[in-house]
Design brief:
mainly alpha
C-alpha cells in the first residue's frame, strides 16, 4: 500500500459533485415548495447542509466516501493501521469546519449583519481547509488535517490492512520469525 496524494483531488472532486449537486437539488425543491422567503431559504439551507455533512460522515463510518471507494482509497492511521473513530471524527470536524459554520449561519440568517459575519467566517474556514487539502501534494502526501488527526490516505496494494506501511526511503528492521521446533 502506498500513500495517495494527487489522485485524492480527483476523488474529492467526485465527492464534492455528488454531495453538492444533491444538496442544491434539495435546496431548489425547498425554495420551489416554500417560496424564496426566509422559510424556504432556512429549510433549504438546513436540509442541504445536512446532506453535505451526512455524505462526508461516510468517512467517519467507513473510512472512505464514494470518491475514495471508486479509487479503492482508505483513510487509515499514518502507519497504515486502521484509524480509530476518534481520529476519523477529528479529521471530519476539521475538514467540515466551513460547512458547520455555514449551517450556524443559516440558523441566524434572519439577522443580516450576524448572518454576514458568520458567512465570512465560513468562507475563511473553507479557504483554510482548501489550503490544508492542497498540502497533500507535498512529499509526505498528508493534508494538514491528516497531520492533525494522525491519519493518512492509502491506495490499493498487496499488504493486508493492519500492517505498518513503509514509505520509500524509510529504513526499518525486521526480524525473521524463529524457526519451527524440531522433534
Amino acid at each position: 500500500m502506498q500513500r495517495i496524494g494527487a489522485m485524492r483531488l480527483v476523488a474529492a472532486l467526485i465527492d464534492f459533485l455528488i454531495a453538492f449537486v444533491a444538496a442544491w437539488i434539495v435546496r431548489f425543491i425547498c425554495i420551489m415548495v416554500l417560496g424564496a422567503g426566509y422559510a424556504g431559504l432556512i429549510v433549504g439551507g438546513l436540509l442541504s447542509s445536512a446532506i453535505v455533512l451526512g455524505y462526508f460522515f461516510l468517512e467517519v463510518l467507513k473510512g472512505q466516501a464514494i470518491g475514495k471507494q471508486i479509487f479503492k482509497m482508505q483513510i487509515t492511521s499514518q502507519d497504515g493501521s486502521p484509524a480509530s473513530k476518534e481520529q476519523l471524527t477529528k479529521r471530519y470536524v476539521i475538514k467540515m469546519a466551513g460547512m458547520i459554520i455555514a449551517t450556524v449561519g443559516t440558523l441566524v440568517a434572519f439577522v443580516p449583519i450576524l448572518g454576514l459575519l458568520i458567512g465570512l467566517a465560513a468562507l475563511a474556514a473553507w479557504l483554510a481547509v482548501l489550503v490544508f487539502a492542497l498540502m497533500m501534494l507535498r512529499a509526505s502526501k498528508l493534508a494538514y488535517y491528516d497531520e492533525l488527526a494522525n491519519t493518512a490516505v492509502y491506495g490499493p496494494g498487496t499488504m493486508p490492512a493492519g500492517f505498518p506501511v513503509n514509505m520509500p526511503g524509510s529504513t526499518t528492521t525486521t526480524s525473521a520469525p524463529p524457526p519451527p521446533p524440531t522433534a
